[in-house]
Design brief:
Elements (H helix, E strand, L loop, with lengths): L18 H20 L6 H70 L3 H8 L3 H13 L3 E8 L2 E4 L2 E2 L15 E3 L11 E5 L5 E6 L1 H7 L7 E7 L25 E4 L5 E7 L1 H49 L3 E10 L5 E12 L3 E3 L5 H7 L2 H15 L1 H6 L4 E6 L1 H5 L3 H8 L10 E6 L6 H12 L3 E7 L6 H7 L3 E4 L1 H9 L4 H14 L3 E4 L4 H9 L4 E3 L7 E2 H14 L7 H19 L7 E5 L2 E8 H12 L3 H13 L3 E3 H8 L4 E4 L17 H6 L7 E5 L2 E8 H12 L3 H13 L3 E3 L12 E4 L1
Parallel strand pairs: 11-13, 13-14, 14-15, 15-16, 16-17, 17-18
Antiparallel strand pairs: 1-2, 1-6, 2-3, 4-5, 5-6, 7-9, 8-9, 10-11, 10-18, 10-19, 11-12, 20-21, 21-27, 22-27, 23-25, 23-26, 24-25
Helix pairs in contact: 1-2, 2-4, 2-6, 14-16, 17-18, 18-20, 19-20, 23-24
Bound molecules: ligand C2E and calcium ion (CA) (2 copies).
Ligand C2E binds next to strand 11, helix 8 and strand 15.
């Protein structure tokens, strides 16, 4: 159900909207996401995807932009700090240089003041020799100055007499203290420093261009520095308070260092390319990091989402194709070992991956709500296929796992009534298992009470792991408590949970509710539990989950071995007879049409298609289709029919099989044929397993059919034919799993061959 269209963050014409609208969209989508998580049915997976795709584009772009802006700000800031420091350093050097030149100017001033009538002499004689001598000495003492001199209304005197090129400065224009320089001068030009001596005379010094250049030198790539004359403000006596290096007067990222003593400043202008580099590199790095982070986050989220969406979509497809199958695990009375019923467990017969256990799909099915149609499919199939066993022994109970979603769906009672009746499994033989971990709301509890009143049996699954209220147990009067296997395991493990197991068994006794122990794997566990009054058990110690056909044979064997022939054990035996006879009839003259067939460009000699066989059984036996399919399956299960491709596959060195992992080994067990062979195959001297590549897919830990057949033939000393049949049996029982497929009998494209 897709009640909402894909969340839109684009304008109707598809173009992304800017700014606030984006934010609004993200917010709306976030709300939709939250709704989707809370109630998976509200928002279809398509809109979840649409939301994520757009949101990720926006988030990644936003992250990249933020990264770029942050990087750029950071770059600008560090660049500025660097040029500030350079300006400060150069400034200190320039200041020291100006101090030295200033000293020379002081020398000139002192000469003027020490020589009586110096001004008059200058007026009359131009540049007197005594002045030149003094200026030579002062110039030599000030290596930072090209020359030192004295300007007067008559002209400028230097060490060599007149000093050409000195800018005309009127003494009245100068403040009392030193001042230099004209406007913004660059290195290489003539730079002057003046000091007013009196109303007529001004001392001057020409700064040595090379020395100044040296002081203002910067690393080539860093940019350029220059000395700047600031316009003195009126009353400026040069004794300024130390000013900030940058700030007022600085433009952009240009750094300005002001002399604390003179109206001069050092200006550092960074090289534009160095600037771009300094700003660019952190910006680019920031942007790249942001994009990578956003990308990684998006990919992670996206993958999880896709995995989930894909899984739920695959489950939905599997449901449409009716690929979910009921397996059953026998439950026994511990005292006698006799079967008292079975739990129906879901298996997914995947066309490519073979049999898949519920560990891989149940959680997602519950999350997505697909568990409801799944329960329906399983109940329908199990009710039909278990009918014979139920009829054979009316004391058997068949347990179905249900969830609160099942319980609360409209029509659940109708489904139960439709599927379970005298022709299938009557309701007295049905147990509904609800796990204790599920929180049951008032409606669900009420529904349970009603179901129980209507004659359906209710068991609490995984007892001890949840928080079932005793009040509910009282109100419900459940028919069975299933002790979770986590507690059963504590019998061997001697853990702190062992007292919990004892408490649970005591509680069961107090409530007078029959107890069933789950996951009983050892005789020790069975003995311990029996001693504490647990009547029933289910676990690998007795039997693993198995296909229904295998269960029917297991039942016969169980009845025989426990000395308790089934009340109507005949029925089952008759069923087996019926199946064998059917096989014979099919093979007979008017049997199902057997011929050579081409299937995917390959010719399969002497075979038929499942659908035709079902049709034939319907006609020949006058049974409904469901029964015909059941009989067809039984034919396969009893080894009377063989899947053409399956047979071929098993020997084909190109096709691979793998062992059912320990955790999933619940996929189907029958009586071991031959005993222990599966374990031996898996054991240290077993068949060599490897990773095999087929097409683009790598199948891990598997062996080719031929390798398995060879191994069986060699180690058991049997013919290859026999080994092949044994191998197939292992495959049917789920001990060896085809990495590619196992098709249901009904599939019209599947070819069978009579054996
Ligand atoms: P559960 O209802 O507690 O079922 C018992 C699980 O324990 C089964 O796993 C069974 O194969 C496994 N088991 C039985 N005996 C032993 C044993 O001796 N040792 C160990 N280690 N395990 C044992 P399975 O079939 O993989 O099912 C897992 C769970 O998936 C079930 O736990 C049940 O909660 C859920 N599930 C299975 N089928 C259905 C279904 O049709 N509907 C729903 N809603 N849930 C199902
Ligand atoms: Ca269960
Ligand atoms: Ca359980």
């Amino acid at each position: 159900m897709e009640s909402s269209r894909p969340a839109s963050v684009s304008s109707p014409d598809g173009a992304l909207r800017p700014g606030a609208l984006w934010v609004g969209s993200i917010w709306r989508n976030a709300a939709r996401w939250r709704t989707a998580l809370r109630s998976p049915h509200r928002v279809g997976w398509r809109s979840e995807l649409a939301f994520d795709r757009r949101a990720f584009v926006m988030l990644a772009t936003a992250a990249a932009l933020a990264g770029a802006v942050l990087g750029s700000l950071h770059g600008e800031h560090s660049q500025r700090r660097q040029s500030d420091a350079q300006a400060r350093e150069i400034g200190a050097e320039v200041e020291a240089m100006l101090d030295r030149v200033d000293l020379a100017l002081t020398g000139v001033e002192q000469w003027v003041r020490s020589v009586t009538g110096a001004s008059d002499a200058l007026q009359e004689m131009g540049c007197p020799a005594t002045l030149s001598t003094a200026l030579i000495r002062l110039s030599l003492e000030a290596p930072d100055a090209r020359g030192v001199g004295l300007q007067h209304s008559n002209g400028a005197c230097g060490p060599l007499g007149s000093y050409p090129g000195v800018p005309q400065v009127r003494a009245d224009d100068l403040p009392v203290a030193t001042l230099l320089i004209e406007t913004d001068r660059t290195i290489g030009e003539r730079t002057w420093m003046f000091r007013r001596i009196d109303a007529q005379a001004v001392a001057f010094a020409e700064l040595d261009a090379l020395a100044l250049q040296r002081a203002l030198r910067l690393p080539a790539a860093a940019g350029s520095a220059s000395l700047v004359a600031l316009r003195p403000t009126s009353g400026d006596d040069g004794s300024r308070s130390p000013s900030r290096v940058s700030g007022e007067g600085a433009e952009g990222s240009v750094s300005l260092w002001r002399s604390p003593n003179r109206p001069v400043a050092v200006r550092v202008r960074p090289n534009p390319s160095a600037r771009a580099e300094a700003i660019g590199s952190p910006a680019v790095t920031g942007a790249i990091v942001a994009v990578l982070l956003a990308g990684a986050g998006a990919a992670w989220r996206w993958n999880r989402l896709l995995a989930r969406v894909r899984l739920s979509e695959r489950i939905a497809r599997g449901l449409r194709k009716r690929q979910f199958e009921p397996f059953v695990q026998p439950q026994v009375a511990m005292a006698t070992g006799r079967c008292v019923g079975a739990e129906v467990l879901a298996r997914w017969r995947h066309p490519i991956r073979g049999l898949i256990g519920p560990g891989e799909f149940i959680e997602e099915a519950e999350r997505s709500g697909l568990v409801v149609p799944m329960t329906e499919q399983l109940m329908r199939k199990a009710a039909q296929r278990l009918a014979a066993a139920a009829r054979a022994d009316r004391a058997l109970r068949f347990a179905f796992n249900i969830t609160p979603a099942d319980l609360c769906r409209p029509g659940f009672v109708g489904l139960l009534n439709a599927e379970f009746h005298a022709d299938t499994i009557p309701r007295e033989q049905v147990v509904l298992e609800l796990t204790e971990r599920d929180a049951l709301d008032e409606i669900a509890q009420q529904r349970l009470v009603e179901l129980r009143a209507a004659g359906w049996k209710v068991a609490i699954d995984d007892f001890g792991t949840g928080h079932s209220s005793l009040a509910l147990l009282e109100r419900l009067r459940v028919d069975e408590l299933k002790i979770d296997q986590a507690f059963v395991r504590t019998v061997d493990a001697q853990t702190v949970n062992r007292p919990v197991l004892d408490a649970i068994t005591a509680l069961g006794r107090d409530l007078s509710v029959p107890l069933l122990a789950e996951g009983v794997e050892t005789a020790t566990q069975a003995a311990y539990l029996t001693a504490r009054g647990v009547q029933h058990a289910q676990g690998y110690h007795y039997a693993r989950p198995m296909p229904i056909e295998a269960f029917e044979r297991w039942l016969l064997a169980n009845a025989a071995s426990t000395g308790h022939p089934l009340p109507d054990g005949e029925a089952l035996a008759r069923f087996e007879h019926e199946v064998v006879a059917l096989g014979e009839a099919m093979r007979g003259a008017d049997g199902v049409c057997v011929r050579d067939r081409r299937w995917r460009a390959r010719v399969w000699p002497q075979c038929f298609v499942g659908r035709e066989a079902v049709d034939w059984i319907v006609r020949a036996r006058g049974v409904p289709r469901a029964r015909a399919v059941q009989l067809g399956r039984a034919l396969t299960a009893f080894g009377l029919l063989r899947h053409v491709a399956g047979e071929h596959d098993f020997e084909d060195a190109m096709l691979f099989y793998r062992w059912v992992a320990q955790g999933e080994s619940a996929h189907g067990d029958g009586p071991p044929v031959p005993a222990g062979m599966a374990a031996a195959l898996r054991g240290p001297q077993g068949v060599a397993l490897g990773d095999h590549r087929r097409g683009l897919a790598i199948h891990r830990g598997c062996a080719s059919g031929r390798a398995i057949v060879d191994w069986i033939a060699q180690t058991r000393g049997v013919s290859r034919d026999r080994a092949l049949r044994w191998g197939e049996q292992l495959m049917r029982e789920g001990r060896v799993q085809h990495v590619l497929h196992a098709r249901p009998f009904r599939d019209d494209r599947t070819l069978y061959r009579l054996i």
